[in-house]
Amino acid sequence: MGAGTGLGVSGLVSTGDDWVALDSEGGHTSFSPTNQREIEILQFALQRYSHVSSERLISGPGIHLIYQALAARQNLDVDLFDTPEITRRGLANECPLCVETLSAFCEMLGSMASNLAVLLGATGGIYIGGGIVPRLGQFFNESNFRQRFVQKGRFAQYLSQIPTYVITEPYPAFIGISALLDKT
Fold first, then answer.
1. Which phi and psi angles does 19 have, rounded to 5°?
2. Which of 25, 51, 63, 65 is the most buried (most CB within 10 A)?
3. CATH of the domain at 114
């Protein structure tokens, strides 16, 4: 899965001798809040959109929407920074609301990633790409992403055995295309 301008979600299934990539629009599944803060973020988003998909919040535009929702939740009159500025200020620890926004984003991504792992039985791992997470670096590593990934009640033990990886290759699509070309 990859968060960037949207939320790309797919799977890779072994057929024994080969692999098949699943076509998916998984980022458009309904957002599922898991705590009071996320319920309030969802309620804020529902004031603007008739359907709040996971992509609506777990994406670059979603970071901006989370920031706005958290500001409203705290009755804060704040500057409406764009996503790059929210990210910059959050990573620099210059703005508590920006830090909270990035934290909420990482937690929501963790829940979405665990949903994908359970749905696909992805015991080989979940790979996180896209334009956002690799840029978060140490912040992401120290976030509650992994805690939220395994936070699934009776499936916690199952999920704790599934690895999660951040794709740091700048152009991973070229590697995939190269592998396809080698087969022809």
1. -125, 145
2. 63
3. 3.40.367.20
